[in-house]
Amino acid sequence: MYLQELQLHDFRNYDDVDVQFGRGVNVLLGENAQGKTNLLEAIYVLALTRSHRTHNDHDLINWEAKTAQVRGKIVKVTGTTPIELDFSARGKKAKINHLEQARLSQYVGQFNVILFAPEDLSLVKGAPAIRRRFVDMEFGQMSSRYLYNLAQYRDVLKQRNRYLRLLQHHRAKDLVYLGVLSDQLAAYGAEVVFQRLDMLKKLEKWAQKLHFEISQEREQLSFKYDTKIPVDQLTNTETIYAALQKLYADNQDKEIERGTTLFGAHRDDLQFFVNGKNVQTFGSQGQQRTTALSVKLAEIDLMKEETGEYPVLLLDDVLSELDDARQTHLLTAIQDKVQTFLTTTSLSGIARKLVHDPTIFNIDGGQLTPEK
Ligand SMILES: Nc1ncnc2c1ncn2[C@@H]1O[C@H](COP(=O)(O)OP(=O)(O)OP(=O)(O)O)[C@@H](O)[C@H]1O
Asked: Where does the record place the RecF/RecN/SMC N-terminal domain (predicted)?
């Protein structure tokens, strides 16, 4: 798939933009603080209805305005679809083919993007929350069922944590009600965990192949889903559900004492191993970067496998963070296959040589000008 056209109105530092993009590599060139990342963010938001940089949608609206719009035309093998998001103080509206969608989860998945920013290089080394976010954002785009279960899980988790805090402060005492919430959480949690395991197995297969190539056939990458659920019970949703129920029952006193849910999908993590050794603890910085790059590139292949279409790739200032060999791998993997948006202050070195026929835009103070 590719983004043929983008229109912005009062989005961040852009007043009005109406632009057609190339199907290959689009280079967004400009000095610092001119709006390069804002433009990538607009594309990311158009796909996922939320930003990767802020939790507050209001930040997306131009400081001088009260509403913002992001519209795009997405081209797939099945045809062209206009999609649209409107932001205002009352919230956001999502439209597909000009029809408003009752739920945002119905909207997400029309347009698939993968964002690769310098922070992603810390996918391996960074906090567990980074890896969970990665898993949820990517798998959510590929499966509306995953997105639905995750949203329900988060809702119940919020309720359960609120109730645990009441119990902790002796402002409630209904343990039967806690049991009901635990059951619901275990049920949605089992769906989330099982789908994660399934998707991770597929992602691992692609990442292994890429990592092997990038490391010049020296390194075997593998994943481990890190959870308190016993390994032998990770076989299906029923066994995972039973294991979670048991964790909640066995740790009821501890959870009440702490006033929060200590077990479940929101606490799980993902670990990466190279030649059997944990990369987070034993890997060199180079191995950690190769792992992050392989995992990111693997997502492109997995999305194609799951949805039948390549996603759009957003590279936020990431080339400058990679050495020549890794840049070469990245650029040859996407070349002529994946529509790519790449922000940079200057296109130089290996990238200038490798990128075939880029479409270049100059970005200056929220103005976008195609380079002749
Ligand atoms: N809601 C908003 N309304 C108007 N301007 C905004 C808004 N949010 C951010 N900006 C402005 O957008 C600019 C930042 O743009 P952006 O983050 O896209 O920079 P960039 O071109 O990617 O630069 P760098 O190379 O430093 O990352 C800043 O000048 C900031 O003040």
From this structure: 2-344
Give the nearest ligand 1 atom to 60 CA.
1
For domain 127-307, give its CATH number from 1.20.1050.90, 3.40.50.970, 3.90.850.10, 1.10.10.10. Answer: 1.20.1050.90
CA of 146 to the centre of ligand 1 (A): 33
Establish whether residue 33 lines the binding site of ligand 1, counting it when its CB lies within 6 angstroms of any ligand atom.
yes
The tens-digit pLDDT sequence of the chain (372 residues) is 999 999 999 999 999 999 999 999 999 999 999 999 999 999 999 999 999 999 999 999 999 999 999 999 999 999 999 999 999 999 999 999 999 999 998 899 999 999 998 888 889 999 999 999 999 988 998 999 999 999 999 999 999 999 999 999 999 999 999 999 999 999 999 999 999 999 999 999 999 999 999 999 999 999 999 999 999 999 999 999 999 999 999 999 999 999 999 999 999 999 999 999 999 999 998 899 899 999 999 999 999 999 999 999 999 988 888 888 888 988 988 888 999 999 999 888 777 888 888 999 999 999 999 997
- DSSP secondary structure code for residue 262 in this structure: -
- How many helices (H) and strands (E) the chain has is answered by 11, 15
CA 9 / ligand 1 centre spacing (Å): 15
Give the pTM. 0.90
- The DSSP result for 206-228, as a single string, is HHHHHHHHHTTT---EEEEEE-S
Among all chains, which residue has been given the structure tokens 């922000």? 343
User: Tell me, what's the ipTM?
Assistant: 0.95
